[in-house]
Structure formats: C-alpha cells, structure tokens
Amino acid sequence: MLFPIGHEDLRGRRWPVITIVIIALNVVVFLGTHWKMDEENSKIAQATWDTVQLAATHPDVQLTPSQQKIVDVFRRQYPAVIDDIKSEKGDTESGLDEEQKAAVAEQAQIAATDLGKQLDELERDSIVKNYEYYPDNTNAISLITANFLHAGWLHLIGNMWFLWLAGTVLEDAWGRPIYAVFYLVAGVVALLVQGAAMQHSIGGVLGASGAIAGAMGAFLVRFPKTRIKFLFTLFFGFRFLRWKFLAPAYAMLPLWLGEQVLSAFVPGMGGVAYWAHIGGFGFGMIVAVALKYSGVEHNVNQAIEAKVSWSADPRVEKANEALDQNQIDVAIGLLNSLVAEQPESVEAHTTLLQAYLRKQDSVSAQGEAAALCKINLKAREMELAFGNYEEYTNIGGAKFPSTEWMALCRHLEGKQNWQRAAAEYEKIATAYNGEKPSVYALISAGRINLKQLGNTAEATRLYREVQNSPVPHHEWEDAIRKGLSECGAEASAPVMAGASPIAKPN
C-alpha cells in the first residue's frame, strides 16, 4: 500500500481557514448522516433486488417508472443475472395449472406495487436519493451536497487527508475566495463528468474525491517539483514491512491519474467514481494554468503579502536604535526580555546574534545561531537553517547541538548530497567523541560510504571505529556486523569499554 504522509510545502503564510472549514463541514455532515444513510442504502438495495427478481420472473407485471429504469439497467448491464433468475422460474412454476398461475401473477403485481411505493417513498424522503448524485436522475442540489457525503470512516478520513495535503497550499497561493469557489466548482465538474461517462448508471455518487482530485491537478501545475513524502507498507509472510521515500509531484501525480484512467476502462472495477477523479484532475490543471498565466495568482499573492506583512515588536525597533547608538548592552537587555516571552521570535534572535557579534561575544553569538537553526528547522526552512549552521561554524563553533546537526545531515541525504552528509556525520562523531551521538553518526557515515559512495575501505574504518567505541551500542551491533559483512570485512567481536581498540604487540 502506498500512501502520502506529507510534502515540503505544507507551511503557509496564513491559517488555511477555508480548508479547515471544508474538513469540518464534511465531518459534521458525516456524523449527522452516515447511520441513516447506511439504513437507507440497505433498504434501497433490498427493494432494488426484489424488483429485479420480480420483473425477471413475471415480465408482465406493471412497474413504476423508477422500477422500470432499474430493470432496464439490469437487463442491459447484467443479462446473465436476469437469465439465472428466469431459469429458476421454470422450476418453481412447473406443474401449476392456469388458475394457480393467475393467482401467482396477481400476487406478483401486488408485490410489485408495494415495492414501487417503497422505492418512491425512498426517492422522496431519503438522504441517499435526494442528496447523492445520480447520473440517471440529476438533481441540481446534489451536485453540491454529494461532495459532502461519505460512505464510511475510511472514505472520509482518506479524502480529508488528501484535501489537507493539496488544499492548504493552494489556499495559501490563490487566496481564500478563489480557492473556495474553485473547490465547489471542481466538485460539480467532477460529478458532471462522471454523469456523462456513466449516464445509464443507477448507482449514486458521493464523496469529496472529485473536488480533491481537482486540487491535486492544480497542485501538479502549481507545485510540480515539490517532493511528496510517501509511506509504502507491505505484509510479507508474518512480517510488516514499511519504507518512507520522497518523490516529486511531477512523477507521482501523473501516475495516480494514469491509474484512474486505466481503472475507468477495466470491466468490473465499479464502486469508485474514476471518471469524477479524471474530470476533477483535468479541471484543476486547467484552472491552475489559467490563474498562473493570466496574472491573477500574482495579484492575489501581492494582496496576501500586504496583509501578512510583518510588523516588528517595539523592543526590536528600540534594540536596533540602541545598536545604532552603540548601546549594545541596552539592545541585548531588550532582546533577551523579548526572547523570554517569545522563544521562537526569529527577529529577536537575529538581532541578538548581531548584537553579540558586535560585542565580540562569540559564545553567546554561537548560541543565537544554534537557536535560529532550531527555529528554521521546525519551520522546514532548510536553506536558512544551513545558513545558521554555517554562521555558527564561521564564528568558531565546533560542537553544534546534536539534534539539529543530525537533522541537517538527514536533509543532505534527502538531497543526495552524499559527500557533504558523510563529512558532517564524521564531524558529529568527532565533536561528540565518547558520547551517544557519535555512535549513530559513525554508523550513518559508514552506511553512506558503503552504499552511496562505494568507498568500502572508509566504510570499514568507520564501522570498526564504532564497533570499538567505549560508548554502549548494543542496539546497533546487528547493523555494525551487517555493514562489515557487506564491506567484505570480518565482523570481529567488539572491544569492551575501557580496553584499547587495537592490541599492540609486546
């Protein structure tokens, strides 16, 4: 199973209010309708099947228009089912005289009339028949309401998660009014495409997936290079295996669309509104191209930037004035009071860093560079975080906080910058020699040298070093032995803590 669990552009400039409202509406509607819809669907399915059986065994019964439509669809799409029912009729009525057959026909007509009334009542009063979208009986309001109905918890949760991934960034890029209208129209277009492709279907269509497919199509056009994080799971024997990987939108979303197109043409792949997905996706791409090249998106972005433009805390402004007057300690005092209240204030930490540099307090300046790196990592501003790290090293820092340092290394691996990643891991091992982070850093550097750089000699050295480390590393023994084995080296027993890693001859 392959499932998206995030992407690089989830952080926006403002709260995604429209997306949150849409999700909340879907949840509220689901909680208020799904129990009743389950009951209604059960009744409709039973009445539909009873009608088909009755019409197949008694072709002369008078049916209501709704019943006749159901029977016609079954005769056209499932002729084998009708034939099976007819063959059973021959067995059940064989041996009856004409009077008995007439009585059976009369009872069949009564049953057909009762079923017709039941179906008509369901069409008039039920949520299913009034608010789901039926291609064979289009109800204008259902083109909106069907997008807020779901068949079950998995259906709802899956759709809302996809909406969160694609919708939040589109809302940030396009603004709330355009995004809200786009979402509703995408849902309508998706249903109409489904209706056009399946115009003789008697099944209802519900769910937000058509509108969300529109958001996915727009995401592909608007953020083609954004890397999406996927979780791949597999049951193998009695083991549950899972992998996480990153792939760009331009590679994965067209694959998803291709799957929908293929499924739409494969017989027996019912139960999913593939044509709604295809129509919504195409509509989203067209709208995204139109907004991008018409200049509308640019104008919206300027308006949003004007609304969210930053206004500095008065203490930052006073601190800058103090620095201009060379009152460095005054500026530091103001900024420290702000940091105490707002620990993640980028402006306060940035100005503090400059103040400490002017004061030539390199230790405090290093602390501010590390704090800024932590804030930017949390915000997924990786390039800014790297800039903070490099500033830390430029002012003499050697032992960067291990958690942030490791995060920067993993990002380098994600970018496939293997040489830099391996070098940084070795720096961590040196800086934290004799401490727990050195173990993970050495193993990571060894793995990169072995798997990515093909440098088995260096990988062997690194695995040997961690194997002989006095730091407890029992949980890593299997990884170390496996690494040495893949290097072609003998996985010798580790040297005990306190012993010399290399035995010297007498």
Q: Assign the CATH class of the largest domain.
A: Mainly Alpha
Overall SS class:
mainly alpha
Helix fraction bin: 55-70%
Task: Write down the overall mean pLDDT.
Answer: 86
Please state roughly what percent of the residues sit in beta strands, choosing from under 5%, 5-15%, 15-25%, 25-35%, 35-45% or over 45%: 5-15%
Sequence stretches where pLDDT stays below 50 over 5 or more residues: 493-506
Order of helices and strands: EHHHHHHHHHEEHHHHHHHHHHHHH
Number of domains: 4
Reported by name, the CATH topology of the largest domain is: Rhomboid-like fold
Alpha-carbon distance between the termini? 60 Å
**How big is the Rg?**
33 Å
Question: Any idea what the CATH architecture of the largest domain is?
Answer: Up-down Bundle
Number of helices: 22
Which secondary structure elements does this structure contain, and how are they paired or packed?
Layout (H helix, E strand, L loop, with lengths): L1 E6 L9 H41 L7 H13 L1 H15 L4 H28 L1 H5 L10 H4 L7 H22 L1 H22 L11 H14 L4 E10 L2 E10 H17 L8 H21 L1 H13 L5 H11 L3 H14 L4 H14 L2 H17 L3 H13 L7 H13 L3 H14 L4 H16 L4 H12 L9 H11 L19
Antiparallel strand pairs: 1-2, 2-3
Helix pairs in contact: 1-2, 1-3, 1-4, 1-7, 2-3, 7-8, 7-9, 8-9, 8-11, 9-10, 9-11, 10-11, 13-14, 13-15, 14-15, 15-16, 16-17, 18-19, 19-20, 20-21, 20-22, 21-22
Q: What attributes does this structure have?
A:
single chain, 506 residues, mainly alpha, Rhomboid-like fold, Serine Threonine Protein Phosphatase 5, Tetratricopeptide repeat, 4 domains, three-stranded antiparallel beta sheet, 22 helices, 5% strand
